[in-house]
Design brief:
The protein is an alpha/beta fold and 201 residues long. It has helices at 34-40, 72-93, 107-118, 161-173, 191-200; strands spanning 9-12, 19-23, 45-49, 53-55, 58-60, 64-66, 69-70, 100-105, 125-129, 147-153, 177-183. The model has no long low-confidence stretch (mean pLDDT 96). It binds D-malate. D-malate binds at residues 25-26, 64, 67-68, 106-107, 110, 132, 158.
Length: 201
């Protein structure tokens, strides 16, 4: 018998080899980003897990001590758990592990960035919307074959522009091909993000 992925999740089979891993923000769930995934690539398969941590009833992918202050031990555990889930789901749904593109928003973008740093073989590419620096790794990952799009808000009250630049720098030092785009607006996703992501993909 095949191992079963142990996240509550949605899987939507597609007609191309690409799979988008959709990672919601705080308070979201596995259904939230399905329409975004379909808009970004109508042919891709979609894998959308629900974060297992509950903060006042709101699902998240890892614990935080305060806004923007992460529980680093929990982040490490949850990062490995989610990366393992992607591997298990690829066996179960028979999708190509080399063609997985992460699409993360806010908390989901932060765990996607954490997977890039800790398990760099997991994604072929990643779109990080309103992402922060999850942690600074002790050993440099090899991201030389990974493309990353960082979508930031010009007046995001949670993620200052300096942190966006810091994240880009961290990923570039690891060899990733990073594009940063700043959009008019705050922490919320805009239609301009979606359009830029479609063009970048
Ligand atoms: C986080 O905790 O990942 C960030 O503060 C973003 C958020 O979820 O609000």
């Amino acid at each position: 018998m095949r191992p079963q992925p142990d996240f509550i999740h949605e899987f939507v089979p597609g007609s191309s080899a690409r799979t988008l891993l959709l990672l919601h923000g705080t308070g979201g769930n596995e259904r939230d980003l399905i329409p975004l995934g379909q808009e970004l690539d109508p042919n891709a398969s979609l894998l959308s897990p629900r974060g297992k941590i509950l903060e006042n009833g709101m699902p998240r992918f890892f614990r935080r001590l305060a806004e923007g202050v992460f529980d680093l031990e929990d982040l490490r555990t949850r990062t490995n758990e989610l990366a393992d889930f992607v591997v298990t789901a690829a066996q179960r749904y028979e999708f190509d592990l080399k063609k997985v593109v992460a699409v993360g928003y806010s908390n989901g973008a932060n765990i996607a960035a954490s997977i890039l740093l800790l398990r760099p073989e997991t994604f072929a590419a990643a779109m990080l919307f309103r992402a922060m620096v999850p942690f600074v790794p002790e050993t440099q990952p090899d991201l030389s074959s990974v493309r990353v799009l960082i979508g930031a808000g010009s007046i995001d009250p949670i993620v200052p522009a300096s942190e966006t630049e810091q994240l880009a720098e961290l990923l570039r030092r690891a060899g990733a091909d990073v594009t940063i785009r700043f959009f008019q607006g705050g922490h919320g996703l805009t239609q301009a993000d979606v359009q830029a992501a479609q063009e970048w993909l």
